[in-house]
Design goal:
Layout lengths: L16 H19 L11 E6 L5 H12 L3 E5 L12 H9 L4 E5 L3 H10 L4 E5 L5 H15 L6 E5 L4 H13 L2 E5 L8 H11 L6 E4 L2 H5 L4 E4 L11 H7 L7 H4 L7 E4 L11 H6 L1 H22 L1
Parallel strand pairs: 1-2, 1-3, 3-4, 5-6, 5-8, 6-7, 8-9
Helix pairs in contact: 1-12, 2-12, 3-4, 5-6, 5-12, 6-7
Length: 309
């Protein structure tokens, strides 16, 4: 019997394949019950504190609505409206909040801030996104792939774009769950070397391939899933113009899609800048999948909450 109560959700690397599958199964069960109007008040009277140093649409609403639908509630904290923005140490914030709430979600820039929060908190901490990882998004992505392809093991996923937090978390998730992951990035925007080494270590004895290329056409060959993200993430706005030049060609378009399998799907974690990382035509063609992927943020996040709180 798997029990994850009290466990932090900081990176997928902290979970076994069986534990991640447990959360996915829980997420599917919660989604199924919601669709037929069955309530799941498993977090009745529990409260989640939500610290957002980075702006959000999907992460915030998924966790806020998710807590409500699970019978609990949430408290939103922005730097402008709390002592966090006035320099209160994260270790003090962790201990203060632990006396008031049952879990803490943080969405911020520096991974160390999440790690330190978890070190000093006595309640579960969830990483809602850092510059290094975006594990909650990948749980929704894996739900979507299972719904579309029936499995994760043996699926060929190709990510095209920046070697960012999404590329990192897809690599780690793929390594653990048995997906073959190809990352196609410009040479100067490759995945963090330490993340590559970590993903390789997580493969263990699985017959899983992790591949890195600098040509999107090469990466797209034989893909079951094509995945992309924005070229410039939050905090990189000043680099946007320069990145547009570098990332030309790293776009999911008809030419790229033709090299994937005939039944390939296209995914995007949103927001999308159509005409940059993906054409408007391809986006609309696969909008059903992309917006189901977006909705699955709600169900996957509820699965995480129900599992650890």
């Amino acid at each position: 019997m798997i029990s994850l109560k009290g466990k932090n959700f900081i990176s997928l690397k902290d979970f076994s394949r069986e534990e991640l599958q447990y959360i996915l199964d829980l997420s599917f069960d919660i989604k199924k019950k919601q669709k037929v109007g069955e309530e799941t008040p498993v977090l009745k009277n529990k409260v989640l504190a939500m610290i957002f140093k980075k702006a959000s649409t999907r992460t915030r609403i998924a966790f806020e609505v998710g807590m409500y639908q699970l019978g609990g509630s949430s408290v939103f904290l922005s730097p402008q409206e709390s002592q966090i923005g006035r320099g209160e140490p994260i270790e003090d914030t962790a201990r203060v909040l632990s006396g008031f709430v049952d879990g803490i979600l943080i969405r911020t820039f520096d991974q160390k801030e999440v790690d330190d929060l978890a070190k000093y908190a006595s309640v579960p901490v969830i990483n809602g996104l850092t510059d290094l990882f975006h594990p909650t998004q990948v749980m929704a992505d894996m739900m979507t792939i299972i719904e579309e392809k029936g499995k994760l093991e043996g699926i060929n996923l190709t990510y095209i774009g920046d070697g960012n937090n999404m590329a990192h978390s897809l690599l780690i998730g793929g390594a653990i769950m048995g997906m073959n992951v190809t990352i196609a990035t410009p040479e100067c925007y490759q995945v963090n070397t330490e993340i590559k080494e970590l993903a390789e270590s997580l493969k263990k004895d699985q017959n899983t391939t992790l591949k890195y290329v600098n040509c999107p056409l090469e990466g797209a060959k034989g893909a079951d899933v094509l995945y992309t993200d924005v070229w410039a993430s939050m905090g990189q706005e000043e680099e946007a113009a320069a990145r547009k030049e570098v990332f030309k060609g790293f776009q999911i378009n008809e030419k790229v899609l033709e090299l994937a399998k005939k039944d390939a799907i296209v995914m995007h974690c949103l927001p999308a800048y159509k005409g940059q990382e993906i054409t408007a035509e391809i986006f609309e063609k696969y909008s059903r999948v992309i917006f189901n992927e977006s909705e699955n943020r709600l169900h996957a996040h509820k699965g995480i909450l129900a599992a650890i709180m």
